[in-house]
Every structure is written in C-alpha cells, then in structure tokens.
Amino acid sequence: MKLTLIGLAFGLALHALSGFAQDAAYNQPYRPQYHFSPRINWTNDPNGLVYHEGEYHLFYQYNPKGIRWGHMTWGHAVSPDLFHWKELPPAIAEDEKGMIFSGSCVVDAKNTSGFSKNGAVPMVAIYTNHRENNQSQHIAYSLDKGRTWTKYEANPVIDLSQKDFRDPSVFWHEPSKRWIMTVVLPTEKKALFYSSTNLKQWNKTGEFASADTPGNIWECPALLEIPVAGSKRTKWLLFISIGAGTPAGGSGMQYYIGDFNGKAFRSDFKQGDVRFVDYGKDYYAAITYNNTPRKISLGWLNNWQYANDIPTNPFRGAMTLPRELKIVQMKKGYELRQEVVKEIRPLASDSFQWRGLDTKELNRSLDSNRIKGDVYVLTFEAEVTGAASGDVGVKVRKGGGEETLIGYNTARQEVYVDRTRSGKTDFKKEFSGRFVAPLKREDLANGRIKMQIFVDRSSVEVFVNDGQVTSTNLIFPKPDSQGFEFFGDGFRAVTIRNIESVWP
C-alpha cells in the first residue's frame, strides 16, 4: 500500500472549511460553496445563458418577494469563470402584462434587430410572458452588457393564444443566416421550430415529438450542434425537460441526438431508446451557453416534487455545476458525455492520495490523518468485473447516524446514490430514496469504474467514467457530518481535493 498525504493540514483545513472567513450571507449550513445560489429568495430554471465581452451571464427564474415560487422575474449574475459570480439587480421584471418565464439570450453582433445605438452591440433576451390563460413569446434588449433592459414595444413576437406555450431557446444558424427558435407546447409534448432574420418576425418551420417520452409535460428545450469526438462530423443534440416519469421520480431531463436541416430536428434514436441526461433526483431545466464555441450547460439543482419545501434559508434553490458537453460514437450509436468545466481546477487544492488494495487500510488512513470535509471533490477508481456480486463505493457526509452512499453494484450492474440516511429527509415524502443508473460491465473500460464525486454542503454530483453516467442529488446533513468510509473491494486509487469557497 502506498499512501501520499500532503500534510495533516489538509485534513484540518478541509474539516474547518465551514468557518472560512466570508460574508455571513453565504455561509449558512446548507449554502453551496461553489455552486451558484442567490443571496436571498427563490430561484428555479437558469435562463438566458450567454457569454459577452468577458462575462458569462446567468439569468434565472427569481422571486424578488419571497422564498417560494411566484412573481417570476429574471434574476441576474455575471462571472469571468463560471464559478465566481457577482449577483446584480434583477434584469427583467414582472409587470402588469405578466410574469417573466424562462427563455434565452443572444448577442446580436450584426444588429439584425436594429436595436443598436451609438455602436453598442445589443443583447436580446427572448422569453415567455405568462398570464393566467396565455403564454406568448416576448423580447427585450440591452445596450449596456445586460445591466438595464428595454422591453420591445411591439411584443409579443409570437402568440398562439394558448395557455401553455413556453421556454424559447434561440441561436444563430449560420448556414441559413437565420435565428432559430425551439419552443414547446408542454402539455402536447411537442417542440416547435421557428426562424427569423431580425428576432422580431418569426415563421414556423417544423415540429418534433416522440412517442417514447415519459411524463406529463415538456419544458425548457435546448438545441445545439456538437462535433463528434475524434471525427470531423457533427451531430445535433436536443435537450427536453420532463415533468415526471424519470428514473429517480419527479422532474428530470431527456436527450435526443440527430440532425437539424435549418427547419426541423430528426432524431437518430429508434423507438424505445429513451436517454436521460442525469439519473439523479435533482437535475432539471438545463440549457446551454450562447456565443461561445464550447458547449456548456447549466441546470437547476432541485426537483418539482419538493422544491418549495427544501430546508434552506434565506435562499431556496441553486444551480448545478456547469458541464461541458461532448458526443461520442459507440458501437450502439451516438451518446452524450458530460464533464465539469475545466474552470473548476484552480479551485481545487491540497490532496489526499492513496494507492493500494486493502480497503480497511484505506479507511484507517483516512481516520488516522483526520480527513474530514463538507466541500471537496473525491475521485476513486476500482476494478469491478472480477467480482460476481457485491458493491464498491464510498459513504460521504458520514457522522451521527447520517451518511450518503455512492457506489456500483456489480450484480445489478448499476450506479447508485442512496440518500435514505443523508440527513434531513422528512420535509417531503418524495425526498428520501436510492436512485440508480444502468451501467453494464461490458461498457466499462478495462473492467474498471471511475467515479468523480463533487460534494458541496447540500449536494453530491457524481460523474462516472468521464461523464458516461451522471447523478445529481441534494442532501441536507448536519454540519458536523463530515466523515468518509469506503466499502467493497477492488479499489486501486483514491484522491480527495478540497474546493475553495467562491464567495468573498
């Protein structure tokens, strides 16, 4: 057994992170330390993700008047690196015409909209205006890098006189020299495609539906073109958020891979081939960044089954880690891969490293060196094909009868996250549970499984085999539940790295 420990100080620093000197507004027991959450009040879907003049913009569904859903307005934050966020005043506010629901934002560099003045490049937001019995698509523009917004005087730009018609996702399609919008009829579970030369007048060009979709509604579409890894080809990826019927229960996300001809999307998947973006309980409404060559997504870290009741205060709701998206071609066809963006690397420091075969020795090393924490990334690699049955994995946030189990069951050939005893779970019956993702042994490279587990104060995000499978879940343990325990056989390598708080 080889053990490398960079000083006892790592364990002590990791253990003491909850006392890090920072603004008390960002230091509650369940406050994420490297995920975005608003200083106060409710948030849900990310909106208007766009990169412009050195800033990543995050707009998001926000209630400026309370900690539960309501009074939907676009909140606003900016970051140079997708982690260090500066929260700005709300961007687009509810008014007498309705609430401001989800949508997207583009940089109109060619001034196709005609909104530019004095050479300023317009940012144009395309969003759903919500009234009790009508949802329609509106636009607003900003000439000062998103700090102030003007609603278009001729809104709405699309109105089908329907109660449920929302969540426009817009991008520039260079081959057709058009803006393309994907928007959904939620209760019909149908995506509509529109095109425009100026962001003001739109023409419908096509539709997409799937007989295989579970659940009751479609929301928050995102359509983008992605190179196929290791080739000169590209494929089109369509994200759809669904209100129910996911593997973990409640809301979640599907994806499709196919082709887009400038008018409509066609899926490559055969009937019965249903793909989920994430197998955890808490990944919803992810969309992607405009105006950057990298394909980066961001989602809402919650589930509509209990979103209004999670035990956080004075905020409620957070964003997931930003993910870089890739498409790979396997024997079975094209698949999505997701990895946390590289910008997280400078936040990780100090390291506990272990190489060996003896799990008991690994746990003794953790105990003797007092390795504890609540904000870190843990990576392990283990051989799993040699065993006929059994589990291999790790318990995190362990202490006082609490623990979150993350592992691989070799008999069932599935990844799982078990938060049954993860801490506070009794605020809603749907919260507690064990959530699984299929992963066949034949799909494991060299008979090994690699897990990268990002732990924050109230969440775990699991990335298996470089994003082949992901599972995102909220947890609410006591602040002093900071232990680790590995279980099973086959471990070959373990690394634990502290992640700095991104709050000042």
Can you give a write-up of this model?
GO terms for molecular function: hydrolase activity. Belongs to the glycosyl hydrolase 32 family. Keywords: Glycosidase, Hydrolase, Signal. Residues 1-21 form the signal peptide. The structure is a single chain. With 504 residues, the chain is mainly β. It has two helices and 34 strands. The strands form seven sheets. A seven-stranded antiparallel sheet has the order 1-24-34-25-30-31-32, with helices on one face. A five-stranded mixed sheet has the order 5-4-3-2-21, with no helix packed on it. The model is unreliable at 1-22 (pLDDT under 50).
Q: Find the structural class using helix and strand composition.
A: mainly beta
**Uncertain regions: pLDDT < 50 for 5+ in a row?**
1-22
What is the overall silhouette? Answer: globular
Which assembly state applies to the chains in this document? single chain
Q: Using the CA coordinates, give the radius of gyration.
A: 23 Å
Total number of beta strands:
34
Mean pLDDT: 93
Instruction: Count helical runs.
Output: 2
Major sheet summary line: 7 strands, antiparallel
Give, in spatial order, the strands making up the sheet with the most strands: 1-24-34-25-30-31-32
Strand residue percentage: over 45%
Helix coverage percent of residues? under 10%
- Head-to-tail CA distance between termini: 40 Å
Pfam family, one: Glyco_hydro_32C
GO molecular function: hydrolase activity
InterPro entries: ConA-like_dom_sf, Glyco_hydro_32, Glyco_hydro_32_C, Glyco_hydro_32_N, Glyco_hydro_beta-prop_sf
Keywords: Glycosidase, Hydrolase, Signal
